[in-house]
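PT: before anyone asks, these are the final sequences, not the draft ones from last week. 416 residues across everything. Please model them as a single complex and drop the result in this thread when it's through.
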Amino acid sequence: MLLPASRGPVSAAVIDAARGGDATVPPHDGDDLHGADTQLALWVVYELSYRGFDDAADDAEWDLRLVAWRRGVETAIEAGLRRRTADDVAVAREASDDLVGQLRALVAHVDGPPLARFLQRSATRDQVLEFLTERSVYHLKESDPHAFVLPRVDGPAKVALAELLYDEYGGGRPERLHSLLYADALRSCGIDATYGAHVANASGPTLLSNNVMSLLGLQRRLHGASLGHLAAFETTSTDPCRRIAAGIERVGLPEAAAAYFHEHVEADAVHEQVVLTDICANAVDADPSLRDDVLFGAAVCLRVDADAGAALMDRWTSEAAVAAHDSADDLVRSA
Amino acid sequence: MTRRGGEDVPVDGSPARREPVRARLCPDGPLLLRGADEVVAADGTVHPVTRPVVAVCACGRSGRAPWCDGTHAYVKPRRTS
Ligand code: FES
Ligand SMILES: [Fe+2]
Ligand SMILES: [Fe+2]
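LR: through. Structure below.
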């Protein structure tokens, strides 16, 4: 993969530094924290710790300019997310004494946009394709952010996390890697399935929802939150996946595209049980101080993913408004 | 040495052993099954197990029986009294 085109001054400086250029990367100044420019820059910095870029300096991952910039942005994002989810975590703690009950209460408490329902019933073929493209930022590296947690836990939680990841990574069959199933789905629809292909056009909220996974996964201090994120993700998957599969079939896209989501109805019904009890509850039993971070991570997942879904739906709503406006103009003109 | 689905006989000729099959009931949810080779449905159809853990529907409402598909969350919990 090559470094993406920049989307503003922040990503321009970061991308130049990653390439080995001599750009100074000014510290984050509080502007545009959730905007596409800063979030693309952060995605690039994180990607240096995954598969990297063919045209980046080989040691850019530990370039001190990038590390310093990243720490400032991460601190601001984490502080904002802690403020934003404080009430959610409090609601969860009130609702139950046990962690599984608290996580379930959290999922019930945070409402998301009706994106899956919309895809199932009303989205156009183009909107379904747009959804698949936007989601590719994550699914082409599916589960990689949470895999960073494996060496940071031990005992039964480690065993269960390895078991879940083994399933995500194909269960011993390379052709069943979930990221590959998603690439197959994209290709069957004629969409570029190259790793990272759609990052440069993804919305700020989509990039943020990806970046928080890396933020929680790459910092050992936050590994409890990464597990909580995984719990919320898996626990809110089966019903949307069923609806999305139905939407894909409704608009007449190929079976391979629906197959990814059918597989996830079945897989995530398993993963939901494994992550709640075998991973999160065991991790908190082993280290009770993790409880609030597990709840924090779950709330983060629910909030940022709701934002990413809402951004997509807003785009479609405003397009529909423009189209309605245009056709009203046409009527006036032809009257 | 034991192997899922295998009938390995250790070289010393002692009786074959394999990992125990483990099942865990999830409250108001499926039965989590580890180490099984197949699940036989009520009509006798044999469903091979293809993942490290499977969730067998215990609520009777799954659209992907015998596997759980999350539908149990929309079924009223059984009264325990
Ligand atoms: S137990 Fe999950 S659908 Fe029946
Ligand atoms: Fe998956
Ligand atoms: Fe999953």
